[in-house]
C-alpha cells in the first residue's frame, strides 16, 4: 500500500513509528501474530489521494492502492461507503472487519511510502491491515487475471444473440 508519511506503523515491539521514519531492517508487526523485517522502502509522489475513515481511524493512500474488504481485495477507488474493511483491534490483538464511515479524495502533493517486507507481506498502518509492495503487486496480478478470465470465459450479449439467431435460423 502507498501511504502518506505520517501514517503510523505498528512495530514488532508494540510501539508506533511514522512510515517516513521506517528504515531497512526495522521490524514491523503483522496482523497475524508475527513480525517481519523491512527489506525495502519505496518513495514516490502523488497528487490525488484517497482517504477512508473506519472505527474512528483514518487511512490516506494513493489511488493505486488495493485494500482487503470482506468481499475480497479491491482497488481503493472502488470502495463504497459502508464496505467492510480489515482492521487490527489492539484490545483483542486480532483482526476484524468494520464498516467505512467516510471516503474522500485529497488533492495534496505529499510523498508516499510503500514498504517491502521479508516474508509476511502484511502489516498494520493506523490500525488498518495493509499489504506491502509484494502483496500489492501480487494482488494486482490476481485482479488482472480474474478480469481477463471474466472477459474471455463469458460470451458477450452480442455473441449470445448471434448464437440464438443462428439456432432459430436452423430450425426454420
Show the helix and strand layout.
Layout: E1 3-4, E2 8-10, E3 16-18, E4 27-29, E5 35-45, E6 48-54, E7 57-62, E8 66-69, E9 72-75, E10 84-89, E11 94-107, E12 111-117, E13 122-125, E14 128-131, H1 133-153, H2 157-171
Antiparallel strand pairs: 1-12, 2-3, 4-5, 5-12, 6-7, 6-11, 8-9, 10-11, 13-14
Structural features, described:
The chain is of the alpha+beta class and 172 residues long. The chain has a single domain (3-171), classed as Beta Complex (Endonuclease - Pi-scei, Chain A, domain 1), CATH 2.170.16.10. The chain has helices spanning 133-153, 157-171; strands at residues 3-4, 8-10, 16-18, 27-29, 35-45, 48-54, 57-62, 66-69, 72-75, 84-89, 94-107, 111-117, 122-125, 128-131. The strands form 5 sheets. The protein has a 4-stranded antiparallel β-sheet, with no helix packed on it. Strands 7-6-11-10 form a 4-stranded antiparallel β-sheet, with no helix packed on it. The chain has a two-stranded antiparallel sheet with strand order 2-3. Strand 13 and strand 14 (128-131) form a beta hairpin. It starts with a strand and ends with a helix.
What's the short version?
This is Hedgehog/Intein (Hint) domain-containing protein. The chain has two helices and 14 strands.
User: Could you state the order of secondary-structure elements as H and E?
Assistant: EEEEEEEEEEEEEEHH
Instruction: Extract low-pLDDT stretches.
Output: none
Radius of gyration, CA atoms, in whole angstroms = 20 Å
Instruction: Specify the biggest β-sheet.
Output: 4 strands, antiparallel
Protein name: Hedgehog/Intein (Hint) domain-containing protein
